[in-house]
């Protein structure tokens, strides 16, 4: 294969590809319907011309038959008058018109066949045009739907769905963290409040006990009144020692807290 042949094939292939890509179904279908309409117009014009020609041929055929009959009557008239040569001439004219009529009859038969064929073609073309118009509307609708679906698919393919889903997951986790922190803060707040009341209650008990101890100690430091009958100073001293021991034990316990 020569270089120019290969180059020509490549050029034709590229041109065909460009033409195929440039074809818009809607525009091509519209143009096809227009072309078929123009073909129908031309066929109707040809049909009209053929029909008119047939009518002229038919008129010529009838006229030829009429002329042949006229010259036949003249030949008879000439013979009746004894004009044999004149009758012969009339018969020659009759023969000429008869031959013309025969030729015209053949033409009429041919034209009749052509007209019948053209009539069938007209009917078939009109039917095809009607069918093509119906299919055109359907194909255009399908073409538009295909274009819309292709655009939708292109849009969806262009979306970063993985990134979007990852963003949703991040936001979901963030909301969960916020909810957890909120719950923890609520629990801490409640615990702190309970602890404060517990400390107050505990503090009240200690303060009350401390006040009681102070009262006892203050009472023991006041001047001793007269001893009840039957108690001696030794017994009183013994009780004081017991109280002092208890106070020392209480101080040790407080220091260990």
TrEMBL record:
Residues 214-257 are annotated as: Disordered. Residues 230-257 have a biased composition (Basic and acidic residues). Keywords: Coiled coil. InterPro entries: PspA_VIPP1. The keyword Coiled coil applies. Residues 101-142 form a coiled coil. The keyword Protease does not apply. Belongs to the PspA/Vipp/IM30 family. This is Phage shock protein A, PspA. It comes from Crocosphaera chwakensis CCY0110. The lineage of its organism: Bacteria, Bacillati, Cyanobacteriota, Cyanophyceae, Oscillatoriophycideae.
